[in-house]
């Protein structure tokens, strides 16, 4: 995608030509359409147009994320997409909770749990499968990946499991418990970022078949700072378009879910799948380039950011929101989370995985989606 003779070397003429590039035009057009259609009942033809722009914005987001990642290097590149998507996702959750409190008491729980299952089973499983198909065995660093997985499991347990067993009925936290969970989530996420980008940065870089760290970058010349900043801005525009257009088409999705006699909570699963599409595509591309570690950074980093940023945000929002905030998982969800945690540990510890491990995680994702549709 990025070549030394491509459009990313910062020359003014080439930068001007990018204004006509689809990766620039589609996100801008998607945001303009979002501004026009936000909060309105849309006819079917308009919904089709919005959905098409949503798909284009997803592909554009992946492109610009790769440009930025190529400039800043790993693991910073993985953090860019994971944090950007999660911040906008959090904003969407809080907006929905404010606009419809009577229907969104469990929205944060459902969204965060869906994000964890999609990232830890869907993105992780797909990455391992593609990596193993490329060279029979997908190789990654178990030290960095194991630390990330331990952080995800801890965050998920503190935020989604403990509320089920507290003395307060609901299942929900008391104000003091919610405050502790929010502070602990932020602290753990901040500590992980410091470890990932500081002293143990090499734990999160791709490794060869002997476990030796290899160059995570392509051999092509990186884009200039100016070109990377342009792509960073366009990445944010594309992500706003992805989340906003997903919200715009959500009434149509809700109508389809109701017509199919599916639980209303399944809408959250569909929205989560749409919002996480950029990370999924970016992880798949990295795995196909034999950069499985980068794919796992994206998967586990996204799960971690989803919990570590969402819980503090809704803790603050709960100050003015009416109604209870339900965070504890039900029995089926607890079983799926426990099975995911055990399976992921067994997958990560060896530092090597084949198509079987990838397939197991994808089956777990399928089980989550099926049970969400048929609880």
Automatic annotation (TrEMBL):
Entry membrane topology: Multi-pass membrane protein
Keyword set, alphabetical order: Membrane, Transmembrane, Transmembrane helix
Domain Sodium/calcium exchanger membrane region: from-to ranges: 46-197, 231-371
Subcellular location as annotated: Membrane
GO cellular component, one term: plasma membrane
Highest taxon, organism lineage: Bacteria
Keyword Membrane assigned: yes
MF terms (GO), sorted A to Z: potassium:proton antiporter activity; sodium:proton antiporter activity
Transmembrane segments: 19-38, 44-64, 76-100, 112-133, 145-165, 177-195, 227-244, 264-284, 296-320, 326-348, 355-373
InterPro entries referenced in this protein's UniProt entry, alphabetically: Alkaline_pH_Ca-Antiporter, NaCa_Exmemb
Keyword Electron transport tagged: no
PANTHER family per the UniProt record, alphabetical: SODIUM-POTASSIUM/PROTON ANTIPORTER CHAA, SODIUM-POTASSIUM_PROTON ANTIPORTER CHAA
Protein known as: Calcium/proton antiporter
